[in-house]
Amino acid sequence: MPEFKEVELMKLEGNPFTMIGKDWMLVTGEKEGKVNAMTASWGGMGVMWGKNVTFVVIRPTRYTKEFVDAADTFSLAFLDESYRKTLNYFGTVSGRDEDKIKASGLTVLHDGKTPYFEEADLVLVCRKLYAQKYDPDCFIDRESDGKWYPEKDYHTLYIAEITKALQK
């Protein structure tokens, strides 16, 4: 399998709308020596507070949220289309119920304390800067609140500095 190389963020290729919204990503965290991940198709990338950042949102019911909350860092892993079934699996099965990583056959690697997957084509190592639960009173577009949160299970928004990009 090809080795990862650190690449400059400004030299990354790819459209974040496609990478996140169409191709999806795995959000991966570690807590007490255990790794868990979930598929995400909501988020973005940009510049905030003078830093290159990503933002992701995680519902309170997701087991992975505990892992992201427990550490200062997490990773975003982008896998090619041949892993679509794996991405579907990580998006529908909870790590509370089974060891998703073992069942998926993915291989966990670490950059320092941050877990990621060897099978990814691109990994963003992220350091949390900000977290806030969505406040229903802040919706200007009230339709979005009703459409996406009928159970009132509001996401937590995480803004994280992209500290490293690893690419094959």
Task: Summarize the structure in words.
The protein has helices at 16-22, 63-70, 84-92, 100-104, 142-148; strands at residues 5-7, 25-31, 34-40, 43-48, 51-58, 73-78, 108-111, 114-117, 122-133, 156-167. It has 168 residues and is α+β, with helices and mostly antiparallel strands. Strands 1, 2, 3, 4, 5, 6, 9 and 10 form an 8-stranded antiparallel sheet that branches. It has a two-stranded antiparallel ribbon with strand order 7-8. The longest helix has 9 residues, at 84-92. The mean pLDDT is 96.
How would you summarize what this structure contains?
By secondary structure, the protein is α+β, with helices and mostly antiparallel strands.
Characteristic key phrases:
168 residues; alpha+beta; eight-stranded antiparallel β-sheet; 5 helices; globular
- State the shape: globular
Average predicted confidence as pLDDT: 96
Radius of gyration, in angstroms, nearest whole number: 16 Å
Total number of helices: 5
Low-confidence stretches: none
Element order: H for helix, E for strand: EHEEEEHEHHEEEHE
Major sheet size, sense and barrel closure: 8 strands, antiparallel
What fraction strand?
A: 35-45%
Taking the alpha carbons of the first and last residues, their distance comes to 9 Å
Write the layout of secondary structure elements.
Layout: E1 5-7, H1 16-22, E2 25-31, E3 34-40, E4 43-48, E5 51-58, H2 63-70, E6 73-78, H3 84-92, H4 100-104, E7 108-111, E8 114-117, E9 122-133, H5 142-148, E10 156-167
Antiparallel strand pairs: 1-10, 2-3, 2-6, 4-5, 5-10, 6-9, 7-8, 9-10
